[in-house]
Amino acid sequence: MTFNSFIPPQRTLMGPGPSDVSPRVLNALSRPTVGHLDPTFIGMMDEVKQLLQYVFQTKNTFTIALSAPGSAGMEACFVNLVEAKDKVIVCRNGVFGQRMLENVTRIGATPVVVDCPWGEAVDVAKVEQALIEHPDAKFLAFVHAETSTGALSDAKSLCALAKAHQCLTIVDAVTSLGGVELRVDDWQIDAIYSGSQKCLSCVPGLSPISFSEQAISVINHRETPIQSWFLDQSLVVNYWSGEGKRAYHHTAPVNSLYALHESLVMLHEEGIENSWQRHKQMHEQLAAGLAELGLEFIVPANERLPQLNTVKIPEGVDDAAVRNYLLAHYNLEIGAGLGDLAGKAWRIGLMGYAARNENVALCLAALKDALTRFAK
Amino acid sequence: MTFNSFIPPQRTLMGPGPSDVSPRVLNALSRPTVGHLDPTFIGMMDEVKQLLQYVFQTKNTFTIALSAPGSAGMEACFVNLVEAKDKVIVCRNGVFGQRMLENVTRIGATPVVVDCPWGEAVDVAKVEQALIEHPDAKFLAFVHAETSTGALSDAKSLCALAKAHQCLTIVDAVTSLGGVELRVDDWQIDAIYSGSQKCLSCVPGLSPISFSEQAISVINHRETPIQSWFLDQSLVVNYWSGEGKRAYHHTAPVNSLYALHESLVMLHEEGIENSWQRHKQMHEQLAAGLAELGLEFIVPANERLPQLNTVKIPEGVDDAAVRNYLLAHYNLEIGAGLGDLAGKAWRIGLMGYAARNENVALCLAALKDALTRFAK
C-alpha cells in the first residue's frame, strides 16, 4: 500500500467552525517545536494567559488554554465544579445546551432543564422562574452563542439573575468569544470555556477557559474527588502558574499554542471592541445580501449571532446538492443544520478571519449561482 | 501593553519528548485548514487509521488518534474499560505507572499494585505472583517504556501471562511506539495508547489509541455509564468510523492531524522494523560515547530503552547548570530527572527524527564541553 503526503484544498471556511485561519497563524503554527518546559515557551504561555484575560475581559488568575477541544473545556467546567449532590439549572435551546445536560447527568447531579425553542435565545423570564422554584440550585448553565442555531442569549441578564439567587454560572462561549460583546468580570461569570477555532480564528484543538475566584473556592472545597485526572484543574494550574517552578502535568501542545498566541496577538492589535464591531458590520452586509436572495433567517432579528447566520433552506432546494456544489465549484464551505435543524437550515459563519468583505462577497455570489441551479 | 509574534529558537530536542519534528511534518502542519467533515479530510483520517494500524501492528478496527495528549489517551483506556467493581493489577516502576494507579483510584476500582524498583523493567515473576494471588483481577496495566526512568518492560511476556490468567491488558506505549518492537495483535494487547510527540516525531497534542475486539466487547457490556462525555469512545467511534455517515462528536484538531498523517507516512516509508533498528543503532553509538565520557546508565543493559537514555549525574556536577548551558550554548535540550530521579539523572532522548547521527554527535560533543566546565 502506498501513502502520500496530504495536500488539502484551499477552502474558504464559512461554516460553524473551524473558521478561516489567517496565514499569520498558520505560519506561527509551523515554527520549530521547543520543549514544553523551555524558558522561551513558558514566557509565551504567560502572554497567552494575559491575552486570554484580555479577550475574556477578566482579571481571573485562572485563565488558560486547555490542551483539548471546546467539548473538553465544557467537561472541565462541569467536572471540576459540579458534584453529584448539586442541583444545576441547564438552559437548553440547541445541541450544546443538550450537551451541558449530558455532562450534568453523567456526574450524577440533579439537572433542572429550562427548555426554550431552538433558534431563539434563552428565555430570561423562564430562567428566573426556575431560580425561584429551585432555591437550592447551585449553578446556572447556559450557552451564550448556540452554534447549532445561531441564537445569542443575554448572558449579562442571565448572570445577574443567577447572582441575585446565589447561583454560580457556567457559560459556553465557544462561538461567542471574540465575535460578540462578552465581559466575564462585569457580568460576573464564574466558569467559562471557548474554542480556538471559532472567532479566535486559530486552528481547532484548544479550549480557553477561565474560572472566577468563587469558582476556584468551590473547587477547593469539594467534598468528593474529581474523577478525571486529565481535566483536574487543581493539577493543571501548577503547570500554567506563573509563580515559582512549573510542575509537569502533561506535555502541552506546543505548536498549537504558538498558533493561539499569534491569533490572540492579532485580536489584541485590532482591539476586542473593534472585532465585535467588525463581526456586526460583516453580518449586516451578509444579511442584506441574503435578503436579496430571498433567504430567511431562523433566528429573530434581535437574537441573531453576527458570526453565525442560520437561514432556512428554501422549499424544494436540495440541501446537500447546494453544499456540495459550493465546495466543489467555489471551495466554499457553509454549514449544514445540526440536530433539529438538520436538512432544514444552513449555517453561514463569519467568524474571526472569515468576517471579511471578500468572504461576504464570495458567499453571496456563490449562493446566488447555486440557488439558481438547484431551484425547483 | 504590547504583544509581539513569538519566534521560538531552533532547538535540538533530545529530552523525553517532545522530540525533534521533521521539517516535512511542520510543513504539513501549516497547510490550509479544511472543515473537519470535509470529504478530503475524511479520506485523510481513513489513512491515519490505516497507518496507525501499521505502526501498532494491529488489525483492530478501533484504532484512532484521540484529540488530546497521551495522558488523556491513558485516561480514555481506563475510564472506558474499568468500572468501580473491577480489580486492576497495576505495575509501578516509575511516574507513569503511578499515574495509571491514580486513574484506577479515581474510578473507584480496586488496585493491586506490583511495585518494582525505578530504573528497572517490570518484574514478570512478581506480576505472575499477583495474577495467581488475585484470580478475580480483570485487568493488568503496565507501562511498556517508562519515560521517567528509561526502562523497557517485556510487554510480550506480561501480556501472555495476563491472557493465561484471563486478564485484559492496558499498555502505555507513549514512548515505545515506533522506537522499539511492539506488536499489538501478536502480543494480544487489549487497550493501548501512545503520544504523537515521542518516536512518531509529530507535534505534541494527539494520542493514538487502539482497542481489541475483546476490549470493545467489555465497553459494550459495561454495567455503569462512562462518566466522561469527551472520552466516551462509544461516541468517538461514530466520527472515526469508515462506514456510512460520520456523526459529529467534537471538532477534530485538523492541522495536528495533518502533521500526524505526515509523520506516519514517513514512518511507513522507512518501514517500522527499520525504525526500530535505527533507534537501536543510534542508541549504541550514543551509549559508546557516554561511556567514554564516564557517564553511567541508570538502567541495566538488557532493560534499556534505546530511545531514552537515563544516565547518572556525576558526583559534584550541577544538574541545572549543565542543562542550562546546553540550552544556551548549543540550543540542545536534554531532560531532567522526574519523580524519584529528579536531580539525580539526565534523560537523553533519541526519539524518531531525533535518532540521527548528527544529533548523537552534537549531544556527545556538547556534553563533553559542559562536563569539563561544570566538573568539580
TrEMBL record, chains A, B:
Do you know which CDD domains this protein is assigned to? AGAT_like (cd06451)
Check the record and name the InterPro entries matching this protein.
Aminotrans_V_dom, Aminotrans_V_PyrdxlP_BS, PyrdxlP-dep_Trfase, PyrdxlP-dep_Trfase_major, PyrdxlP-dep_Trfase_small, SP_NH2Trfase/AEP_transaminase
Domain (Aminotransferase class V) spans 33-337
Note whether Cell division occurs among the keywords: no
Q: Which domain of life is it from?
A: Bacteria
What sections of the protein cross the membrane? none
Key words of the record: Aminotransferase, Pyridoxal phosphate, Transferase
Gene Ontology molecular function, alphabetical: transaminase activity
Q: Which family does it belong to?
A: Belongs to the class-V pyridoxal-phosphate-dependent aminotransferase family.
> What is this protein identified as?
Alanine--glyoxylate aminotransferase
* Natural source organism: Thalassotalea eurytherma
